[in-house]
Specification:
A hairpin with a 3-residue loop joins strand 2 and strand 3. The protein contains 11 helices and 12 strands. The protein is of the alpha+beta class. The strands form 3 sheets. Strands 1-10-7-12-5-4 form a 6-stranded antiparallel beta sheet. The chain has a 4-stranded antiparallel beta sheet with strand order 6-11-8-9, with no helix packed on it. Strands 2-3 form a two-stranded antiparallel sheet. The radius of gyration is 20 Å and the shape is globular. Bound molecules: 2-oxoglutaric acid (AKG). 2-oxoglutaric acid binds next to strand 11. The site of 2-oxoglutaric acid has 7 residues, from strand 11.
Length: 307
């Protein structure tokens, strides 16, 4: 009879907890009617959550206007969504060409961004992909003006060696703060590329025949796992494409904004649900025994139960 020493790697309690977590995740997806989005994540590697399942248009306008306010103050510019980006006080002139503005570190810049981080529909799909223990990696506002260049296809599995993991380490939830069309400079995907478990080659990343643009109205959230090949089309129309990128990651994967925890105040903790703590880097899971439970759950939930 062989004798084993030490702790159990997967014991009955862990498995039971894993089953409970899986049941919680799936029932949340059902409650919010997001089954079709799960199927698209599995099949195409990305999905669009329609505005009616995300938030009111008033909320989305508030997010957009707050990002614009921050960008204008910090970059000495005026942003006109219909016309473009102007140097401060030069609205009567031509808008600037090829402008991309980015405002990072939105957690800590206003309560509205905490509410967006805690959005139920976005969190339900993020949790499906990354487990209940995932954290926020970074949150940034983007303003993209007219320009000439495509953004090459890439994956969001930064520094992960190939073959890329079958179950993503990260996911990107991009809030569309203006309408997305090809001419507006939409994000583009190669559908199904997440199953290849590798990055595009240089040639593939520049092959625009592969670029399938996302067409979706303001207020949608475009969501994809770290393996999906994506890039973006140049904006041809005048005006500005506005978006907010919320990049979530498994608890052991890197944090693009490592200082987020330091910006969290007691007021922020008091006004948010408990899960906020974990998302911003507090309450990290312990390795044993609940850590194992999470790992087991995350593997299982990636096989679509809705197929
Ligand atoms: O700007 C876009 O449409 C693409 C954004 C992107 O590639 C990313 O967030 O990884």
């Amino acid at each position: 009879m062989q004798k084993f020493e030490g702790f159990s790697f997967v014991d009955r309690e862990d498995l039971a907890e894993a089953g409970n977590a899986e049941a919680r995740i799936l029932s949340e997806i059902k409650r919010l009617s997001l089954e079709q989005n799960v199927l698209e994540l599995e099949d195409r590697g990305y999905t669009v959550i329609s505005p009616d399942k995300v938030a009111s248009i008033g909320f989305v306008e508030q997010v957009r206007d707050e990002i614009i306010r921050l960008m204008e103050a910090e970059n000495d510019v005026t942003i006109d969504i219909e016309r473009g980006v102007f140097s401060q006080g030069e609205r009567e002139r031509e808008p600037r060409h090829g402008v991309d503005l980015i405002r990072e570190q939105l957690i800590g810049a206003g309560e509205i961004f905490e509410k967006a981080l805690m959005n139920e529909a976005v969190l339900a799909l993020t949790t499906y992909l990354l487990g209940e223990s995932c954290h926020l990696s970074s949150m940034a506002g983007i303003a993209k003006g007219p320009g000439d260049g495509y953004l090459q296809m890439h994956t969001d599995h930064i520094a992960v060696p190939e073959p890329l993991p079958a179950h993503p380490y990260a996911c990107n939830a991009t809030w569309l703060l203006t309408d997305y069309t090809l001419e507006n400079g939409a994000t583009c995907f190669q559908p199904g590329s997440h199953k290849l478990l590798r990055r595009p080659t240089g040639e593939e990343s520049r092959d625009v025949a592969r670029f399938e643009p996302v067409t979706a109205p303001m207020g949608s959230v475009l969501l994809w796992g770290g393996n999906a090949w994506h890039g973006s089309a140049p904006r041809i129309n005048p005006g500005v494409r506005m978006s907010m990128i919320v990049y979530y990651a498994r608890w052991f994967y890197f944090r693009d904004d490592p200082d987020v925890t330091a910006r969290v105040t007691s007021e922020m903790l008091a006004r948010n649900p408990r899960r906020f703590r974990r998302l911003v880097g507090l309450d990290r899971p312990t390795l044993m025994p609940s850590g194992d439970a999470e790992v087991v759950t995350q593997g299982r939930t990636c096989i679509s139960p809705f197929a």
